[in-house]
Every structure is written in structure tokens, then in C-alpha cells.
Q: What sequence folds into this?
């Protein structure tokens, strides 16, 4: 969590997100191991260091005892992190239930859970109550650490109720809220039983941000159609109070990746990987094992490609890193078995005694190994069915200055709006189209690869996470000043 420069007085920023950038594992009664968390939000925010920042969130572990809570608080303080302690029941109802079984699929156009409609309806109320309770617990911790003048930046679908809780504490707090997922069309959002309450809570913020203009537009139409409020070019107005709504496309700390490629251990990794995959083109997928990432669709497209192009069968390998996530949610457990079954079948079908076409890993890689893998890749496959932005596509581009590999990118990822001109855009549901794009990417002439890479590399290295955070926070500061001026007039 960015180094702070003591000589420059920086604005204090409280970043509030469900998950801290480090997850804790208990190693003794009062000892802890801290591991870096996965996910786009963490990878974007890690590089930000122009603020005097503190991160408030859940450490991903149940700590029922006071000794544990005290020692973990101390360990996290060294990383400028402040924990919110959530007990098992809350985690079950709020995180597994309302956040990841209801909001997450809905916001990614997968609809409300279908399987057992009655059970879902019954548990809905209790999960929403837990969601509000958890948001209130986050607000309590923010309020405890808040100092006048601080900027409070709330993140993601877990904390839609937080802006309201914070403004109820102190209406003068500068509060921004940013969504890292898509915001769906208002016709999807209106199916959510708690649709109005959530919109109203978000509108309590001073500034509301999204990755793309489309998501911002969907949010404004949800407010106008569902709440009957007025949408203006600047945002949403309710009884004279304007909530600014705008798009702030996120980026990565590209220098961190570029610098890593110069490290001796990364160079060693690159050499090993090149030897390991000698004579074959490397295709790569890096995803959390989540239904929105379209992993089965991607693998089926790869199978179709091998089926139709026997000549490539021993000349290409697909490395798929599928990082386990939300493993207590049944949908995610089902996905894991489904992916294993498909990979097993394809490897059985096209493998030989010495090689398999798909290397599937059920775990994350450390940062250096990941950079090396990005650097040796010829074609990256990002086939999300929907994705707020997708920073894997950015990370891949940042590591490709030498190889100039090709990015195949879903048109349903937010990144398609920024990297679309350099990538090959695909509809991930269309397995035939993706298979054809794989063929095209693998045999693309070098001048075309270079041109496409140049476009993407320029974007990724100029639209960084630093710039994203600075723009959002300065816009938030300005919004609050403008609102004060308006009320004085
Ligand atoms: C996405 C979400 C993040 C979340 C991450 C990892 O990127 O937008 O808010 O932290 O996934 O998911 P998890 O449930 O493990 O925190």
C-alpha cells in the first residue's frame, strides 16, 4: 500500500472497500501472516501513493476473540490498513448471500438466482438486513477514524448503503462512491427488490463514479425511471441536491510491471518458461474462477480451434490460471467442477504421452511469476461474459513491449472501450467466432501485431491507476466546493 513521502503534506484519504488489500491468515494466538488479496480493485489501488491513505475493510478472516482482534489490528496498522470485523453469520448473509449471490450476478446480467426461487425470496429479506448491518459496521469504523477534511472513497457493490450511513453520521463528510462492476440497464436493476433503497443510499454520496460512460448512463436512467428523479448532464438531482455522476476508467500501475521484467528472478522465470514451451505458441487466460469470466466458453472455443486446425495441435498450449474465489457460494463450486470436467475431456482428447493442450492451474501465481508468464505469451484470451473493466488485459499489454502479443478481448468487458482498437474484439458466447479469432491471432503478421500493441501500450502506460485516483479525488473535492457555493448563493 504505496509508500508515503513525509516531506509533502498529502490529503488524507480513507479508502473503504469490502476487502483489504491484504488477507490475514492466523498463524498463532496473536500472530498473523498477511497475503496480498486478488482482484481488480486491489491491483489498481495498490500503486496509488499521492495521498496520505488508509484502507478500511475486512481482512477475509473470522476473528471472534479480543486478543486476536487486537493483534490483527496492530499487524494491519503497519500496512496502513484498518480492519472491520465481520462475524461468520454476517459474512454468510452479507458477503456470500446478498453481495455475491444477488448483486454480483445481477450486475453482470446473469439475473437474480433462479434455482430455488422460493428459498431465494425467503432469504432475501434477511440477507438485505445483513447487508445494511454490515455497511453500518463499515460506517462505524470510518467514523471512528475520520478527521475533518478527509476524503472518504467507498468502493464497489458491497458498500452501496455506506454513503447514506456516512452522511447520517456527518453530512459534511466528503463522500465518493465508485463501482468496479458494470451497472446494468435499468430494466435489469428494477428486478431487484431493494432497488430504490440502494439507489437512494448511493445518491447520498457527493460523487458517484463508474468505469464507462454506459454504466454511468444506466445508473442515471435507473434513478430517473425507478425513483422518478431528474437526470442532468452532470448527474442526478433530488430536491435541489445534485449528486455528480461520471465515468472514470481505471488503469494499472504499469511501471510496476515494466520494472519487474528487468529483475533477475523474472528474467530467470522467463527463460525457464521459454524452454518449457519451446516450439509452441503460448496462449494465456488469467481469471478469478468466476462465472462472469466465461472460462468454460473460452476453453470450448479453444477446443473448437484444435478440432478445426489439426496442424496446430502440437504447436500451441493454453495456460489457464483460474484463481479460486468465493468458494462458499454454491454457484462457484459448480463452476469449478464444470471447468475441471471440460479441461479433463479436452486434454484426454488432444493430449499425447508428453504434452497436454491445456495447462490449468487452480491457484494464483506470485507477482514475478505472473509477469514472466505475461511476457512469454503470444495470445491473451479475455472472454468475460461481462466485466466492469478487466485489468488482466492491461497487465498483459504492459508486459508485452518485446513480444507484442495479441489480445483477444470480450466486447462485454469495460476494457473493450479503451483497448478495442488494438485488441481483437469478440462475443465470448460465439464459440465459432472466438475459435476463428484464435487462428487469426496466432498467425497475425508482425507489422499488424506491432501496430495493435502500440495502440494498447500507449493507452495502458498513460491511463494509469495513479491518474485515475487523482482525477476522481480532485473531482470529488471540486464537487463539494461547487455544492457549497451553490447553497451559499
Ligand atoms: C472484483 C470485485 C472486488 C473484489 C474482487 C475479488 O474485482 O470488484 O470488489 O474484491 O473481485 O473478489 P472477493 O470476493 O474475493 O473480494
A:
Amino acid at each position: 500500500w504505496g509508500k508515503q513521502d513525509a516531506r509533502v503534506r498529502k490529503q488524507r484519504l480513507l479508502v473503504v472497500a469490502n476487502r483489504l488489500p491484504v488477507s490475514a491468515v492466523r498463524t498463532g494466538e496473536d500472530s498473523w501472516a498477511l497475503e496480498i488479496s486478488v482482484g481488480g480493485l486491489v491491483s489498481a489501488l495498490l500503486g496509488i501513493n499521492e495521498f496520505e491513505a488508509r484502507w478500511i475493510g475486512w481482512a477475509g478472516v473470522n476473528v471472534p476473540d479480543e486478543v486476536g482482534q487486537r493483534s490483527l489490528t496492530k499487524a494491519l496498522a503497519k500496512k496502513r490498513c484498518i480492519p472491520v470485523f465481520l462475524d461468520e453469520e454476517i459474512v454468510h448473509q452479507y458477503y456470500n448471500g446478498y453481495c455475491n449471490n444477488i448483486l454480483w450476478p445481477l450486475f453482470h446480467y446473469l439475473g437474480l438466482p433462479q434455482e430455488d426461487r422460493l428459498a431465494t425470496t425467503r432469504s432475501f429479506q434477511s440477507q438485505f438486513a445483513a447487508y445494511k448491518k454490515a455497511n453500518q459496521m463499515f460506517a462505524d469504523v470510518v467514523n471512528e477514524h475520520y478527521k475533518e477534511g478527509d476524503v472518504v472513497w467507498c468502493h464497489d457493490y458491497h458498500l452501496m448503503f455506506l454513503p447514506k450511513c456516512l452522511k447520517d453520521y456527518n453530512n459534511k463528510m466528503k463522500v465518493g462512491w465508485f463501482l468496479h462492476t458494470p451497472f446494468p440497464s435499468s430494466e435489469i436493476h428494477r428486478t431487484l427488490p431493494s432497488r430504490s433503497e440502494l439507489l437512494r443510499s448511493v445518491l447520498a454520496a457527493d460523487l458517484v463514479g463508474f468505469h464507462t460512460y454506459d454504466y454511468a448512463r444506466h445508473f442515471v436512467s435507473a434513478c430517473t425511471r425507478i425513483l422518478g428523479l431528474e437526470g442532468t448532464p452532470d448527474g442526478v438531482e433530488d430536491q435541489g441536491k445534485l449528486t455528480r455522476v461520471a465515468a472514470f476508467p481505471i488503469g494499472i500501475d504499469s511501471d510496476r510491471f515494466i520494472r519487474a521484467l528487468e529483475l533477475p528472478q523474472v528474467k530467470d522465470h522467463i527463460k525457464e518458461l521459454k524452454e518449457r514451451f519451446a516450439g509452441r505458441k503460448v496462449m494465456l487466460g488469467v481469471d478469478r474462477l468466476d462465472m462472469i469470466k466465461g472460462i468454460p466458453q473460452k476453453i470450448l472455443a479453444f477446443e473448437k480451434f484444435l478440432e478445426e486446425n489439426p496442424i496446430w495441435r502440437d504447436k500451441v498450449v493454453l495456460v489457464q490460471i483460474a484463481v479460486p474465489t468465493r468458494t462458499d457460494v454454491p454457484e462457484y463450486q459448480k463452476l469449478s467442477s464444470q471447468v475441471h470436467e471440460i479441461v479433463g475431456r479436452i486434454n484426454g482428447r488432444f493430449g499425447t504421452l508428453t504434452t497436454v493442450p491445456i495447462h490449468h492451474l487452480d491457484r494464483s501465481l506470485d507477482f514475478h511469476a505472473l509477469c514472466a508468464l505475461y511476457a512469454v505469451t503470444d495470445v491473451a484470451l479475455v472472454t468475460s461474459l461481462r466485466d466492469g473493466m478487466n485489468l488482466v488485459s492491461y497487465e498483459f499489454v504492459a508486459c508485452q513491449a518485446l513480444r507484442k502479443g495479441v489480445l483477444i478481448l470480450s466486447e462485454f468487458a469495460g476494457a473493450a472501450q479503451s483497448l478495442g482498437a488494438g485488441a481483437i474484439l469478440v462475443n465470448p458466447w460465439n464459440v465459432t467466432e472466438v475459435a476463428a479469432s484464435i487462428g487469426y491471432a496466432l498467425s497475425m503478421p508482425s507489422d499488424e501485431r506491432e501496430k495493435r500493441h502500440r495502440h494498447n501500450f500507449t493507452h495502458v502506460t498513460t491511463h494509469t491507476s495513479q491518474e485515475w485516483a487523482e482525477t476522481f479525488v480532485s473531482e470529488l473535492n471540486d464537487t463539494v466546493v461547487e455544492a457549497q457555493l451553490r447553497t451559499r448563493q
Notes: The CA atoms of residues 148 and 173 lie 8 Å apart. The chain has 18 helices and 17 strands. Residues 1-7 have pLDDT under 50 and may be disordered. Residues 18-19, 38-41, 156, 180-181, 325-326 surround 6-O-phosphono-alpha-D-glucopyranose (CB under 6 Å).
